[in-house]
Design brief:
The chain is 47% helix and 18% strand. The protein is α+β, with helices and mostly antiparallel strands. The longest helix has 19 residues.
């Protein structure tokens, strides 16, 4: 499934941790998740047992109460477009029950995974479902895929105008097709990639903020700070202080994020 899965599947388990919620910043990937115990609760309400979420540029608070075991996959946007067989603009900023996109295969996935007690068996079930979808799914526009791959390889440090010129299309055409097929125009997608690169550097090789900003293509540290406020709702320093082992941030006392999500349920 090269080019389809960015990461996964993984199985995560937690039992009523000491914090009440975690903050999930947006990622330049498509999430497909299946809950095998209690369903997740976010600012959008109680999520379906099996769901897929399109690209978004806003953080989400996730309630940690209860018993949770989740199968979590991260798909590339072109890969998700192929297995979903719908333009990802229809999923942008939304959490959609998997059955609405995958039909009967998605409707029974949670039950089938819950019955498969072995983790390896669960992963096989998920990969078989995706492989079946791939056989009939159409690939995205080659220009859109090429633009996506160039942006990802450069971690967002590519100007959209120059990218369009290299691909022999107008900037307007590229932006419209990219937005329709993958769910977000290339410029905000590049911005999300830069933020994701910062998160990765924080986890792998902590350094001075000014150095991280420069390495990730920010004009200055103030620009980096603005993106943290936009994507995580908190400052870079607060983000690091609340990091969880998996790379997310604890979000118990984040009224600004909660206010931002109040109208999204």
């Amino acid at each position: 499934m090269q080019g389809i899965l960015a990461r996964g599947p993984i199985e995560s388990v937690y039992r009523s941790p000491s914090f009440g919620s975690w903050l999930e910043p947006p990622q330049p990937l498509i999430t497909l998740m299946v809950s095998l115990e209690d369903q997740l609760v976010t600012g959008k309400g109680t999520l379906p047992r099996a769901w897929i979420a399109g690209l978004d540029d806003r953080p989400e608070l996730v309630d940690t109460a209860g018993r949770h075991t989740e199968i979590d996959l991260k798909l590339t946007a072109p890969g998700a477009a192929r297995v979903c067989r719908v333009p990802l603009r229809e999923l942008a900023g939304e959490v959609v029950p998997l059955e609405e996109i995958f039909g009967s295969g998605g409707a029974h996935l949670a039950e089938e995974l819950a019955e498969a007690r072995d983790r390896g068996r669960r992963f096989d079930i998920v990969e078989r479902l995706l492989a079946g979808r791939l056989q009939e799914g159409e690939a995205a526009d080659p220009v859109v895929v090429a633009a996506h791959d160039r942006l990802v390889a450069a971690e967002g440090r590519v100007r959209v105008g120059a990218l369009a010129a290299d691909l022999n299309v107008s900037r307007r055409h590229l932006s419209a097709r990219f937005h329709q097929q993958l769910g977000m125009p290339p410029k905000p997608f590049a911005r999300l990639l830069r933020f994701h690169a910062v998160r990765r550097r924080i986890a792998e090789a902590p350094a001075a903020w000014a150095d991280i900003a420069a390495a990730c293509g920010y004009s200055d540290q103030a620009h980096l700070n603005r993106d943290f406020r936009a994507f995580a709702g908190i400052s870079p320093t607060e983000f690091v202080q609340r990091l969880l082992p998996g790379g997310s941030a604890i979000g118990d006392q984040l009224p600004n994020v909660q206010d931002a999500n109040a109208g999204r349920a």
